[in-house]
What does this fold into?
Amino acid sequence: MREIVLGTAGHVDHGKTSLVRALTGIETDRLKEEKKRGITIELGFAFMDLPCGHRLGIIDVPGHEKFVKNMVAGAAGIDLVAFVIAADEGIMPQTREHFEICSLLGVKQGLIIITKTDMVEQEWLEMVQEEVRDYFADSFLAEAPMAAVSSTTGQGIVEVKELLDSMVRSSEFNQAHGPFRLPVDRIFSMKGFGAVVTGTSISGRLQVGDEICIYPDQKKARVRGIQVHGKEEQEVEAGRRTAINIQGLDTEMIDRGDMLATAGSLDPSYMLDCNFLYLSANKKNLKNRARVRVHLGTAEIMGRVVILEAEEAIAGEQYNVQVLLEEPVTAWPGDHYVVRSYSPVRTIGGGVILNAKPGKKRRRFKDINQSIFELYHQGTPEDHALFLLKESGFMGLTFAQLEVRLGIFGKRLKKILNQPISARKLLVVDSESQRMVSEEIYLGVMEFATSLITDFHKENPMKEGMAKEELRSRLYQGLEPKLFHLLINGLVKNNTVVQDKALIRLASHQISLQADAESVKKEMEQFYLNSGLQPPTKKELATKFTEFPAKMIKEVADLLHNENILVKVSEDLSFHPQALNQLRDKLLDHLNSTGEVNAQDFKTLSGVSRKFTIPLMEYFDRTKVTIRVGEKRILRK
It folds into this structure.
């Protein structure tokens, strides 16, 4: 059964800790300084079992303005808030700030508790209750139940317990699916056990023995033990105050604000696309790129708010923003965040994370931003998946990466992707890693590849085609071989290109020669024909045609080889096929009559020097006319 977490909120010295003690019998102020000063500094924890069968975990937060950072950390994982207001003081500064924080963190349910009723007259209590109702009007606490209590006398405590039981009994608290996540709010070491972290689990399940990861540094460890409210457990689920004993990491390697999560379930980022509410209580406008304190889970990170469609934020208005952070964070879309000013420190706004790892920095005042944020707000999960794949470009995303980026996992995501895969809106490039690219990106790469081949033909009209590896290297650095293979197959299938071994050419390509090149081709063919078994080397060929560009001579020679008008016998020597065929006939006659041929016999047959005979003998070996046996050749059968 999912545990419900209740968090306290309210001004300093309004009786939050006393209320928790009266409800549970547990003293949540554990630090020496807290007891000395009589105020809560760090988060305190308690629990109570309700008649309905639910166990209620309780987080007692500090109310002093100096410790609001700790309050935000505690409020990050609560389901219900007990808003505590002292009858003798009413609405105070931290009442307002705590309420703003709860609203920004998406808390939807709660109750209002007026404390210290033994210190005021009934008429004064009624006036405070009216003031509180007016303050919370038009908020998630507008219809919240209200109780008046005295933690000193015990008045109203039973009523609060009954209210909590009724609220939990009648409410449906969503199960938080997906991998396990726990924002770390405390780290300590236990002798004989090692590092222990505590926090409120916000999603998934975790078992003893599971591998976990500390984000954002991605340090891996293993769960040695789990405690929930001081009791050993083998498993913990979302919504529980939990202590986890970690094997493999020291306390110095973990910080408050880190996220303990299932390995591979998060991806650190320095940027967040968010909606942002600039609170109506702010006295000044917020300048673009103002340096602020960003609270996410239990972490506080310095960053800047880039306002995409305005010069500055006006109090009470909502904005599309990109938050640029000075340290990496890990989140899923839908996580809430709070923004506090750099100095003086005060809560000024916050909202919901829409994209936890944008592909790039957003440029301000661009029309595309409006459509992107509309998609975030109104698009389906399929729309979001296709957008993320588009932004990831030709590198695409694996199924596991897409899970993290969407915050949707396993069968739920597979079901979402079935239709776009069937419709080829996205293509699975690698079935093993399930790497996918969007159709739009794939078609863009295909178009780019076609333009590169077209340009190659224009620059090299006498070449039969472009080497595949040259095409791949000129496309995009880091282009995966499997995507390139898919691309080439696609171009061949739609009859855009023809693949000939290692060469790629447009299906429409025909070798075209200018008048000079045509003349050189005819002259070069005749030159080789006349040279017989004593053709020129590459260097000698270049000196023969000095009046023409060296590039043209090379391209014409390559063309003659491609058209089989010349045969390459060695790297430096090519022959006309007529000369080779005549020599082959002589060689066969000799072998048929004598059975073998040595170097001297071959020299006599060919009538040329060793410069030519050695390459020619090796050529006939390669073409399987002869086979070498010692210093002689015999006819290959």
